[in-house]
């Protein structure tokens, strides 16, 4: 089929803007509206829900959102595809049917299952399925398709497969649609949300609209948004999302390996960015499996240390708590938020965060928090806490492994109840060795900025924050952190690619120095992507880091004062 498929997205995570479904349906023309609810932490939350009630395990908020706009979607012929099914796609499909009956609406609901794997030692274990089960449901006439754990991009790729009739061998088209799906999967992040240069947005980033991908029969697309909505769609906002939570140039998926180093972006009018040139290769023979386990129990207390002798005060608290509860599982983090000669208590204070993780709920609970409170009159001068004593809470640990695609029973359950097996791809990529860690930057090439042999500046420099010249976006994948950095101009890129090596990153962000770091270049995007292995420990659900998902890591890097090439700050996308 020819024409353009307009795929919008109304949810980037479980808890996203509740009115987005209504805004997207009322804002303009759409063919398909998607909703992404699943993340590694979400699967843990849903797993705990299911422990309490086996009929749960799906994103309950989706039902509330759908209630107010199901009739509108049916009237306008907008089909809905969502992974809100989580651990129980059949249960959510049945709940949607019951909702439609209550509203007096006739709706054809299908769902995709097979991702849940039998792992008796795990709370949840789910393979990341691809797009062809979704496509089969749409081909069978479904108005709504509910999935469990599919790749986020598959929510957009599946409708494109159904519309354009792509097969398993249409690798470039599948890769192009995968990029489109990746760009819109996080909702407003591609329309100006969480954008390094938010002050340059027309509305200052106050309420970015949700995105639309206009997907073409060859897999190319235009990323845009409804007229009159906030934020912006520019080459830079799209670049920021494209480097978010990815690894190397080979972006592995169940249906195709997408070559991110082939992606081309160019402005296509106001709030329109064309995405083309994407190439794909056969997918791997295995599927990623996300596994969640309950890791134990955790608790935390925070002490305020005001004025003089902050390190000594922190040492006193540490010794007192260790003497009372033992050292096992304790973690102390001193945040030096205090200022010298401050005029008020808050700016004169540092924060000592004390965390305890243990398999024993009693030890991690009141036995720990009560000890902290008992120090109120028996510790350092000015002792006070920001936290009340409380019980421990369970935490989860996320790990990932892989299973052969052929071992996963990918099934499309059609609106009439027919169960249609979805065969795995016949052509898969051979196994390859992993990336070489710690890759240094390239040898700098001749260009307008003179440099020494290691990328250091040999010409005039000025001191300033790195973020004057580059944008960044960072995030988490299990225990690993991803940090994407892009240059705003060609001249800055020519400097950045030789300057920002793994060693220099370690100097700017010392917390990364002990980690294995992989560095990848994406010249078409003027971007470098770093994968920092193990920085987040056992993952967000168990992390005691101040920034457990590494969301602020990119902005920390941008804030560092460095030697920049002399001259005025970058002028945005003027040389695109």
Summarize the structure.
The chain contains 15 helices and 26 strands. With 576 residues, it is an alpha+beta fold.
Sequence-ordered SSE layout with sheet pairings:
Elements: E1 5-9, H1 20-27, E2 32-35, H2 40-52, H3 60-67, H4 70-76, E3 79-82, H5 89-103, E4 109-113, E5 124-127, H6 132-139, E6 144-146, H7 154-164, H8 171-184, E7 211-215, E8 221-225, H9 235-242, E9 250-252, E10 257-259, E11 264-267, E12 273-276, E13 279-281, E14 286-306, H10 310-325, E15 330-335, E16 349-358, H11 361-364, H12 366-374, E17 384-385, E18 393-404, E19 411-413, E20 419-421, E21 461-465, E22 470-477, E23 480-487, H13 490-499, H14 502-508, E24 516-522, E25 527-533, H15 553-559, E26 561-565
Parallel strand pairs: 1-2, 2-3, 3-6, 4-6
Antiparallel strand pairs: 1-7, 4-19, 5-14, 7-8, 8-12, 9-10, 10-13, 11-12, 14-16, 14-17, 14-18, 15-16, 19-20, 21-26, 22-23, 23-25, 24-25
Helix pairs in contact: 3-5, 6-7, 7-8
